[in-house]
Amino acid sequence: MIRLIKLIILDILKNRIMIIYMMVLALLSWGVFSLEDNSTKGLLTLLNIVLMIVPLVSIIFSTIYQYNSSEFVELLLSQPIERNKIWLSLFIGLSISLILAFVIGAGIPLIIFECSTIGFMMVGIGCLVSIIFVAIAFLSVILTRDKAKGIGISIMCWLFFALLFDGIVLFLMFQFSEYPIEKAMVGITALNPITLSRILILLHLDVSAMMGYTGAIFKDFFGTTLGLMITFFLIIMWIFIPFYISLVKFKKMDL
Predict the structure, then answer these.
(1) What is the pTM of this model?
(2) Residue 177 DSSP one-character state
């Protein structure tokens, strides 16, 4: 299994798309911190970039790689290797490759310009978001064997989590503005890993005052030790549940 993971990582790291992804992240990260005279402004700008680009590349690249590796997977299945080990190796290999690209591209500038708790937290959030969207990509791939449909499902998932979800939340807040729904918003954020990640970073940047009364509610919950533990647990669930469902389906799939 370890040899298989190494083979997958080496194959991915030689991919031109992965190299371009790493270079784009590096260019944006160094550029943002070089142009901004305030590190907090740089972090806020980079946060928006990371939470848009990282999930998009992670889910699209993982989906396409999975479909392109279908013959390789079938070859592995003909060998005396357990299906769960093959699927887990692919998942670990893709996750590690994307994490390495993110850390080299965006993590190094973050640590250099913001060598603090918030800097390391942003690097950790970027790594976790990468893994989450790899897991969602695996679920998208296993739902259909049609490459076009699988890529379409992945793009729609990214659109929902990165763009549509916030619009739906704003619509609900406007529609029910006369009711005390701020606490309900805390529960709704659990439905989106990107929103969870954004709120965690914003609260630790001490800009929660810009979020009004809702920001105070979020700070009361996410700012506590228990809130951080629950948030971390929810993020781990966003990795575990999609991957586990895909693993169960893969073990039962007739190839």
Answers:
(1) 0.90
(2) T
